[in-house]
Write a structure and sequence with these properties.
Largest sheet: none
Mean pLDDT: 82
Order of helices and strands: HHHHHHHHHH
Helix content: over 70%
Distance between the termini: 57 Å
Oligomer: single chain
Strand content: under 5%
């Protein structure tokens, strides 16, 4: 009977032998599930001014949903970290098997395309994006929202650096690849950074654009963050578990930041308070 390790190795080798097909299927599933969640929210969401709940209870329900997302993402991260910390962990072996298979299976043209895509989450790129968006928000008088944006992007950088130092995982060998990376590997900073930066950018834009743009923004941010994460695997600068952990940590931090901004908006809009537009 096949063990859990055997099954994991089988799927790792299969994914490594058909990297673009697996990427396409997973991306389609991500977009479909995101659209379904969006439809459910739109279908059953009740605006606060139409809800039968008191304002505080209404806020508590929304924060509980965000808290559930945070806990779920943190649980995924903890499970990956625990598995990798186990002696002779099957996940580490599957990581290496996937990396080895991708090395010989990915077409050179696709590798070059993902090498360009991954630059969208370089530190310099995200730093420039952070500054430009913060300035744009400040010029529009949205100083609180600008502050939330900066804390989200910069805070994720600090969080990722701390986690890398704690786990101190060595990167896979990638001396012959088109992109070089140094430092520790777990979790992927490009992945978590893209989730937070482009997820927050989508959230900020939904505050200014009509409702018909909201779903495309969410789907675009999800597709971009996922693709950047996959690029790190294809370029062999990260193991697959590094990317999964980066997705989890980035999602948790993004949920914390958006929930904090929403809580600030509610607090400043209480009766007797001067409303602001954070």
């Amino acid at each position: 009977m096949a063990t859990e390790s055997d099954v994991l190795m089988h799927w790792a080798q299969f994914a490594g032998q058909h990297p673009l097909a697996v990427y396409g299927v997973l991306l389609a599933l991500l977009l479909a599930s995101s659209a379904a969640c969006w439809w459910l929210v739109r279908r059953y969401h009740v605006p606060h001014d139409q809800s039968a709940l008191p304002p505080l209870a209404y806020l508590a329900v929304r924060l509980a949903a965000g808290f559930g997302l945070i806990v779920s993402a943190a649980w995924v991260f903890a499970e990956i970290a625990e598995e990798l910390g186990t002696t002779g962990a099957s996940m580490g072996q599957a990581d290496q098997a996937l990396a080895d298979a991708v090395r010989t299976s990915l077409p050179p043209a696709a590798l070059q395309a993902f090498a360009l895509l991954t630059r969208l989450a370089d530190t310099a790129t995200l730093t420039g994006l952070c500054i430009l968006v913060a300035l744009a928000l400040a010029l529009r008088g949205r100083r609180w929202l600008a502050l939330g944006w900066v804390l989200a992007v910069a805070g994720n950088g600090v969080l990722n650096t701390t986690l890398k130092a704690v786990f101190a995982r060595v990167r896979p060998l990638h001396d012959d690849g088109p992109v070089m990376a140094s430092g520790f590997s777990f979790p992927s900073g490009h992945t978590s950074g893209s989730v937070v930066a482009y997820g927050m950018l989508a959230y900020v834009l939904t505050r200014f654009l009509p409702g018909r743009w909201h779903l495309p923004l969410v789907l675009g941010a999800a597709a971009l963050a996922f693709s950047i994460g996959v690029s790190r695997i294809f370029l062999r600068v990260h193991f697959a578990s590094d990317v999964l952990a980066g997705l989890a940590s980035g999602t948790a931090w993004l949920a914390v930041c958006i929930a904090s901004i929403e809580l600030t908006r509610w607090y400043r809009r209480r009766p007797g308070e001067t409303p602001i537009r954070p």
